[in-house]
Amino acid sequence: MSFISGVGLTAFGKHEGRSTLDLMTEAAEGALSDAGLRRADIDGLLTGYSTTMPHLMLATVFAEHFGVRPSYAHAIQVGGATGLAMAMLAHELVEAGVAKTILVVAGENRLTGQARDSAMSTLAQVGHPDYEVPLGPTIPAYYGLLASRYMHDYGLTQADMAEFAVLMRNHAMLHPGAQFHDPITVADVLASREISSPLKLLDCCPVSDGGAAFIVSREPTSDHHVRVLGCGQAHLHQHVTAAKSLSDVGAAVALKRAQDKAGVGLSNIRYAGIYDSFTITLAILIEELGLAQRGESAARARGGDFGISGALPLNTHGGLLSYGHCGCGGAMAHLVETQLQMTGRAGQRQVRDASLALLHGDGGVMSSHVSMFLERVR
Amino acid sequence: MSEAAELKGWTDGADAILYQSCGACRHLWYFRRAFCPSCGDASPQTHRASGRGVVYSTTIVRRAATPDAKAHVPYAILLVDMAEGFRMMAHGDSDLRIGDQVVAEFRPFTGLRTPYFVRA
Predict the structure, then answer these.
(1) What count of other Cβ atoms lies within 10 Å of the Cβ of residue B84?
(2) Residues with Cβ < 8 Å from A32, sequence gap 6 or more?
(3) What ipTM is given for this predicted complex?
(4) Measured between alpha carbons, how far is A30 from A336 in angstroms, rounded to an integer?
(5) Least CB-CB distance to A145: which of B29, B59, B63?
(6) Sheet holding B45-48, edge to edge
(7) CB-closest option in A128, A136, A144 to B109
(8) B11 and A131 in contact (C-beta within 8 Å)?
(9) Considering only CB atoms, which chain B residues are within 8 Å of A239?
(10) Whether this model's pTM surpasses 0.90
(11) Could you tell me the pLDDT band of residue B5, with boundaries at 50, 70 and 90?
(12) I need a surface site. Which of A65, A267, A349, A350 has the fewest CB within 10 A?
């Protein structure tokens, strides 16, 4: 059994002059304070990676900088799935008795710490170095390939995908920390410039500076904590060329493994935090996870099901699409928001009942998947 | 070494598309390795593909990441299901659609010669 006892999240967007370690520190301070802990209480530390501060040993660099001396520490990397993979690992470590109080933290000045082209070409390296990268694909191109095929197979339209950009923006408008607060419409998304067809600018998440952290502990350390019920992963391919299917990418496999651990049915889920690097990412994941039938996720979004007062509120902070994406910390914001919702601390974004939540993250080009169930504890 | 092991493909600078197969388990794949990724057999066979296939998916890149690639914008990136039974990424005509029958040519792209598909 493990609990998420505290969470910390910086605003996402531009943090001119602030480094990876600065943003990690701000998020970690937030999580520690939220959990009612001091540095000396931390006996485990997990970090992700930073493209603006590549290092062989980011966890111990941060440990020394921040001032903790954990008995267990290292960084891990599975792309965008890193945040949830760290949460899962922390849960497993606590269950195994390896550590009692684990700080999970990530942050990066991905927007202001490098040129935009540099960020784009670094990210595109998730492609195969010999058989894909020489062809000049970008991350939006990989997801454009996914989107074209998914539209062909399931009748999804560009207006359908745009629905998710609008939904995420509507949520972000209620969060002061979000990168974007200007309202957008489906027409705005469709009129935004094409990046890699069929994806338009507003179908793509931004590059952001930011940080996120949480405390995973054996005992609750605060009165606002949630319980981790179970987690699962799946890794069926790395490169989009090698993926057996572009619509059964491993999300359902990870979900099944998490369900087996958690012992809960999907119909009991009241809140969801789903990775949304692109609008198509969200549509595919919602449908592969079974939260909507194939080809029907957009209709459900249009009907309000995934809104704050809907049947299954989703990414109420605005997701990667509108809260922002700072790398490993990006999907950790989904977990932070979920924890706030489940403990009744989401302010004007508060949903009615977040008693049981599903989180799902993916990394690469739908390559690495992590699912996690969280339960409210009173 | 067999003659097949010396075949060169477009990633080696030759105008050819290669793939591999396993004599032990019949698995067939695209990314070259010294072993079969399905059963581990250490003597996969390398073959030259016909260049014929069917478009599986397409995207038109309008925002490239590197200065070299920007000179080619817009360009199409395709996934093509090849006649021999493997899938590959390549360039191609911008008006190609999913399901189109295509055949490979080779054209210059950022100092390389890369596979470029046109309607068969």
Answers:
(1) 17
(2) A6, A8, A38, A39, A42, A103, A215
(3) 0.96
(4) 11
(5) B59
(6) B28-29, B18-21, B45-48
(7) A136
(8) yes
(9) 31
(10) yes
(11) low
(12) A267
